[in-house]
Amino acid sequence: MSIGHPCGILACVRAIPHLQLFLSLTFISFIIIFLDNIRILSLPKIAFSYITTPIQYGLYKSGQTMGKQFYFIFAARYAAKENSALKEQLGFLLSENAKLRGKLAEVESMLSQQSTLDPKVYNLFPARPIGLDRYLKIDKGSKDGIKLNQPVVYRDNFLGKIVSVSEKSASVMLPYDPDSKLSAFSLNKAGKAKGILLGQFGSEMLFDKILHEEPIAEGDLVYSEGTEGFLPRGLVFGRVSEILAKDTQVFKQAKVKPVFDIRDLELVFIIQE
Amino acid sequence: MKTLIVILILLSFLQVTLIPLNLVLIALIFRAYIVSEKENLYLAFFFGVLISFLNSLPLGLHSLIYLGIVQSIHLFKKTYFSGNFLVMLPAIAVLLSLNSILISMFQKSSIQLWPIIFQETLLGVPVYFVLKFWEERFSVKPEVKLKV
Fold first, then answer.
1. ipTM of this predicted structure
2. CA angle, B31 then B32 then B33, to 5°
3. Cβ-Cβ contacts under 8 Å, B58 against chain A
């Protein structure tokens, strides 16, 4: 007997259990859906909700109350985890902040440098100070094209000259090193004074061999003459802090202090050519 | 039967307030699997209406779906491989997914099966054993006799 045979279809229908009841209940479900759609069942639904809504509310509130009893356990665990995660994040942020501040200072240095010594005239190479004792150490060396006697500047201020070079670092002799001797001049409204800038131990320089008739006063800036050949003219050495003049001596002197503290610098620049 | 009805009413309220799983449907499926009788269809119909009412859905929607599922279980019970309970688990997962899909389609909401279907399928295991124990509590097991 095949499935297409009427007896086959009847056999299949008989095999379905409780078919009549299933079809009746399905039909009733469709009628209920229809009646609900046309809002006939609204009133019974409202009436029944007076019974079910309080039960639902009671169960829901009970669940909330029970949950609150255990909440503090979960909250404490979560707070502890959150605390350690936040501490870790804070450490990371502080570290990142420090790096960003450093980079910002470097960028600001570069921008201010470009606004003073024209990069079209001078080939400026940036370097970071990595140590300061007698000499200033920088993080660039022969591999980066650094050579002996190259001047190191910051904006239009002379910081020193390269006295030793290794592959990845170099030492800079500062103008207040006792071995430093540079020709210099100062300028004010009254005129110009020429002399030799000698390094003294400490952070002071002595502007020596100034003729008595040449005008110089406290607060005057002292500049490079540029006669040595390795540094350009017009770089600032420092500011006159004290005049030392005795009539019995041929020349007068002046104490010169640097304009800023070298330890505050994030970046310095080497004039390569 | 009275106890089952009370439990199903309690499960209906739990389902719509505290535990967002198809507790009633799981109980009906396993009851239909354990005991294939017409009372299952009545239970599916009436509790479908109750669930639709409590969920603020059109009355009759859940009852249609529940009737279809329970009848499917009755038909499945007649197949050769229905004797193994482990075969039921994937079938239950499919039926529960079908229920979720149909409700989501009606509500025009996104269909989210994971992880609810997984949780409901796993929940079916203890429900099955509890129902089986309850339904067969008065069934006398044939004693094992040794052939001498």
1. 0.81
2. 90
3. 33, 36-37
